[in-house]
């Protein structure tokens, strides 16, 4: 086997094994600081307690997120949830972007309500019994 092929196989093997290895490493063995590692543990704990969601429930949840928007934005939000527009990206790549285009007049745009996005609080860490 040539050196180039050997290195390619070795790189692929490492890439496949890294996610499994990362679950067993301690923060001192990774580049995570203690606070980040604790946050990741809490998130993993919360995810393990979540119930599975059906496609219909996921659709209803997505539409509920559109419900609090002003009417000017709500129509486009619901259209994206229902599959209209273009989709690009991937979850593995960092996120799926859903885009739709709506033409409005300058007057409509000037009168469009402004939306202020506020950070959402982190879920509380589950209490541990000792």
How would you explain this protein's 3D organization?
This protein has 130 residues and is mainly alpha-helical. It folds into 2 domains: 47 residues, no CATH class; 56 residues, no CATH class. Helices cover 50% and strands 8% of the residues. It contains 5 helices and 2 strands. It has a two-stranded antiparallel ribbon with strand order 1-2. Helix 3 packs antiparallel against helix 4. The model has no long low-confidence stretch (mean pLDDT 77).
Helices and strands, with pairings:
Blueprint: H1 3-22, H2 34-49, H3 55-67, H4 71-81, E1 86-90, E2 95-99, H5 106-110
Antiparallel strand pairs: 1-2
Helix pairs in contact: 3-4
Short description:
The chain is mostly helical and 130 residues long. The protein has five helices and two strands, in the order ααααββα.
Features:
2 strands, 130 residues, mainly alpha, 2 domains, 8% strand
Distance between the termini: 55 Å
Radius of gyration: 22 Å
Strand content: 5-15%
Largest sheet: 2 strands, antiparallel
Shape: extended
Mean pLDDT: 77
Total discrete domains? 2
Number of helices: 5
Low-pLDDT segments: none
Helix and strand element order:
HHHHEEH
- Give the structural class: mainly alpha
Quaternary arrangement of the chains shown? single chain
Question: How many individual β-strands?
Answer: 2
Q: Widest sheet: strand order?
A: 1-2
Q: Which bin fits the share of residues in helices?
A: 40-55%
């Amino acid at each position: 086997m040539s050196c180039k092929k050997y290195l390619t196989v070795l790189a692929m093997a490492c890439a496949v094994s890294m996610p499994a290895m990362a679950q067993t490493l301690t923060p001192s063995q990774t580049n995570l600081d203690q606070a980040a590692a604790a946050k990741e543990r809490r998130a993993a704990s919360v995810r393990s307690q979540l119930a599975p969601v059906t496609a219909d429930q996921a659709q209803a949840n997505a539409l509920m997120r559109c419900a609090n928007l002003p009417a000017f934005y709500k129509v486009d939000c619901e259209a994206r949830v229902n599959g209209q527009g273009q989709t690009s990206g991937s979850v593995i790549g960092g996120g799926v972007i859903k885009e739709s285009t709506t033409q409005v007049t300058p007057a409509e745009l000037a009168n469009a309500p402004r939306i202020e996005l506020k950070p959402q609080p982190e879920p509380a860490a589950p209490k541990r019994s000792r």
